[in-house]
Amino acid sequence: MNKFTLLKSRAVLLPLDHVDTDQIIPARFLKVTDKTGLGEKLFSDWRYLPDGSPKPDFVLNKPESRGAAILVAGDNFGCGSSREHAPWALTGFGFRAIISTSFADIFRNNALKNGLLPVVVSPDYYHSLLRRLENEPQSELEIDLGTQTLKVAGEPVAYFPIDDFSKTCLLNGVDELGYLLGLEEQISAYEKSQMAV
What we know:
By secondary structure, the chain is α/β, with parallel strands linked by helices.
């Protein structure tokens, strides 16, 4: 997993509320246990025509969306069934962060465990940001995980919450297992001390 410290990027706008995990990655693509290629299946039912060709009017297919690493989504993003494939598809497409007013709990946890940062902002800030990005789509956003801030030139700074453990893992580019492996010396010392008792 790549370290997440400071992200500067343009954003893709998908301001639809209650986007569920089956819309993010349809169930027919869940048979895989590998992340490879899932970015191509992201929002598949919205993104492609029945013949498999891209829908030119869908936001991810527009040239200005290429290279953007931030998705601005609607409220309650990632609701529905639990599937780790949803953050896999989002990161496979190239997203590193999602901004919303709220996330479904299971999706949020799956995202954090897979290097995808869910950024929660207030509804007022969200609507101000949407207006700004609709008028100036090339605006660059800056997400600083260390200070837990979201910045856009000309807008007030927004602070977002994240638990300490998830923050530590993202800053160091490790998942839960990687974090535990980093404590191998302390674990071994503890086990030795217990054997001596």
